[in-house]
Amino acid sequence: xxLFSTQTLLLFLSFLTFLYxxxxxxxxxxxxxxxxxxxxxxxxxLLNRHRFLDWTTDVLRNCPTHSAVFRRPGKVHGIITANxxxxxxxxxxxxxxxxxxxxxxxxxxxxxxxxIFNSDGDLWKLQRKTASYEFNTKSLRNFAIQNVTVEIQTRxxxxxxRASKSESVLDLQDVLERFAFDNICKLAFNVDPACxxxxxxxxxxxxxxxxxxxxxxxxxxxxxxxxxGWVWELKKxxxxxxxxxxxxxxxxxxxxxxxxxxxxxxxxDPHNDDMDLLSRFMAKEENSxxxxxxxxxxxxxxxxxxxxxxxxxxxxxxxxxxxVKDKIxxxxxxxxxxxxxxxxxxxSFGYEELKELKYLHAAITESMRLYPPVHVDTMAxxxxxxxxxxxxxxxxxxxxxxxxxxxxxESIWGSDCVEFKPxxxxxxxxxxxxxxxxxRYPVFHAGxxxxxxxxxxxxxxxxxxAAAMERFEIDAVxxxxxxxxxxxxxxxxKGGLPVRVRPRECVxxxx
Length: 511
Ligand code: HEM
Hints:
With 511 residues, this protein is α+β, with helices and mostly antiparallel strands. The protein is built from 20 helices and eleven strands. The chain has helices at 2-24, 42-48, 52-61, 84-93, 101-112, 121-135, 138-166, 172-189, 203-225, 229-238, 241-267, 277-282, 289-304, 306-319, 322-338, 351-356, 358-370, 403-406, 410-413, 454-471, and strands spanning 67-72, 76-81, 169-171, 376-380, 385-386, 392-393, 398-402, 472-476, 485-487, 491-493, 498-503.
């Protein structure tokens, strides 16, 4: 019996080895993810987890329709696609068949509750309706511009000035994350956590909140990458390891948010009416304090490191592209020269001026094509379906559209798809910005759940870049090496982005 087991085991191992060697040979390897008996694509997933995005991009590139079936143990099956027709089908044409779904909801429920990112059906619709109305108001846009301007003028520029004087190396990703966190908290609650302002009295509380938020987001997204789902569930049950840390982080985040909601409810502060997002949702009396908390946490997540992720990669790319830098600076100087009256002080640009920064807009858009902040996005399949490229999908499978891979597909962007080329966003004559179908460029998602903060995000990103580049030369210390990726809910740079800051020589106005 024992001998039989040993022989069976040896046979099985030989079979696996054969499959492994067969699949390693590019000539004999069938397209798609390699699937082994019992373990599915797990061996390759483990081998490539550290370079998940590039690995999956390579696989999809070699598939005829850029879609592939992915199988993991524990009946986790699904499709990963970089095909625009499939993306349109999932996000628009057959939207009702592809909700976030139970698995996604379950993995993020502890952190996000029933907030807009983590809900489907009526709960989602209700939040979407209120939020879309509010996001379109001029008053919210003005509030956003005003907040960005104050943060740039009173914190960002002084910080960059200090770094340039001391000639020290600065972690720009960290600076951008602090900026975005202060900014989104102002917009969401009208509370200033002062994370970018190391010297302020409230900074320690704000910094603790930010750190806890960061941990909660990273540890929650880690659940998606866990090889066996029961491992994190057991850790949660025993309250040990990463799940213990997650619980503690979530407690800190909830306590901070609850505090603000409670004091706002008690104060009924007329000065906050109509200003931030919280007061707009509080106007609906049926919203419970817990639901308000979930809503606010989702908005912070949305605004927190999407823009900082986008700009970190942008500044890294720009460090080795002096030609693009020069064009951006020339445009900033032209727009600066043409503005007689500034809306919000010297440091930043008003809404109309930001609109004129078209080349900058294209450069940021191009950078997000190659390094999309939300690198992949996953939905669940409610009923069996066939995607437009002919790929069959079963009930309860997941479907992931791969935004990072889509930015690197020749079939979408042509043979120069991996080149950073802001010019590709203009028409033949070079003057008019060419909008792209959101199904080919799903950086802000598409269809019914498309990002509500897109305009706000561009306002923030363009303001930061224009104010910083007008005054400083910012160069990545290691500009020739592509930084390692860190996959949280957004795509970040592992270990941060060390930069050197120097004053720019030709500055038309100083802060
Ligand atoms: C570069 C910056 C940004 C990028 C690339 C981005 C991208 C996205 C993506 C891919 C989604 C879909 C996520 C999902 O499936 O759940 C999304 C949704 C959303 N975004 Fe953004 N976002 C950015 C900035 C912002 C900002 C600054 C805000 C708000 C202040 C915001 C608010 C939202 C909201 C509320 C949703 C949920 C929409 C819904 O489910 O109906 N985003 N965004």
